[in-house]
């Protein structure tokens, strides 16, 4: 039998290797692969648990459990499972009720004449149930859990079915959580801020100024209103105050704008000739759509002249910033208030793609209410 050399006792140190560029590169790659492996393992465990929860909810619905075994069957089932698996979590009465509600929310939405394959057609939601439910299939008796659901934590699902009123709205937030990694608190905040209703709600002239295949995606870049609750401004603030506050809170501002925006600059000098100089408020680049976005901030109601100036800035961005492969630049006015008719007329003959949205400042509102109460007292 061959002798196997045994390791001698020793202190393990970092000595003895040459950590050259190749080693550093290999080590970095291994670390990346390990993190990806951890993420896949977490998703797999979460997905397996959710598949199980989904099956319980589906059983309770399709077996018509209450009709067959009585109104207390869910409570009894939860008790029996906890008794058999005392160390397992997830079998509280309330959690089992959520399993049933979770399955039923999607099952009822799909079977009420809204086939998922017809409902989810284009844009960022196009892949959510693709391949899971074939057109014409009647899923009333058996609805499989869409794969993307496995990338969303359980209590995110609970939050969504508690507060969403339609299949479209629920899938919108499912997609956001799965693809942008939202925490539960962010999901709660965005639902409370009605992001689904606001997304794509900004008034625009995109139908007349962009290629047909770009209209819908570009519309989804903007929302109305924008929520600037993270700002703290004096009561009589002006545009400069608003702009400075947003730049100081650029991380929060980028989060509010949405995924994919990169900050390019503020008040970038636009020199037309030796005597003519302009300063656009804020310039961003949207990486997924490969286009520059010029934003003008107004601490007042929308006025028609705002569109003319922004049109000029977007033209300049196309001529001076837009590179090969970039899509047309777009502009956005974010103002205090806006009348739809005034906006529509102002944008009607504009040649560049522009949008108009409003913003809200929660702190200002709260302080104003507090001051009114103090004056009243």
Can you walk through the features of this model?
It is a single chain. The protein is an alpha/beta fold. About 50% of the residues lie in helices and about 10% in strands. The protein is built from 16 helices and 9 strands. Strands 1, 2, 3, 6, 7, 8 and 9 form a 7-stranded mixed beta sheet that branches. Strands 4-5 form a two-stranded antiparallel ribbon. Strand 6 (about 280-285) and strand 7 form a beta hairpin. The chain is globular and about 80 Å long. The relative contact order is 0.07.
Query: Main beta sheet: strand number and arrangement?
Result: 7 strands, mixed
What helical percentage do the residues reach?
Answer: 40-55%
**Cα-atom Rg, whole angstroms?**
27 Å
Structural class: alpha/beta
| Percent of residues in beta strands | 5-15%
Poorly predicted parts: 114-140, 363-372
State the end-to-end CA separation: 96 Å
H-E string = HHHHHHHHHEHHEHHEEEEEHEHEH
Helical stretch tally:
16
The total of beta strands comes to 9
Mean pLDDT: 82
How are the elements arranged and paired?
Blueprint: H1 21-62, H2 65-69, H3 73-84, H4 93-111, H5 116-119, H6 154-163, H7 167-180, H8 184-192, H9 195-198, E1 203-204, H10 206-209, H11 212-219, E2 226-227, H12 239-248, H13 250-257, E3 261-266, E4 270-271, E5 277-278, E6 282-286, E7 291-297, H14 304-320, E8 330-335, H15 340-347, E9 354-360, H16 362-376
Parallel strand pairs: 2-9, 7-8, 8-9
Antiparallel strand pairs: 1-9, 3-6, 4-5, 6-7
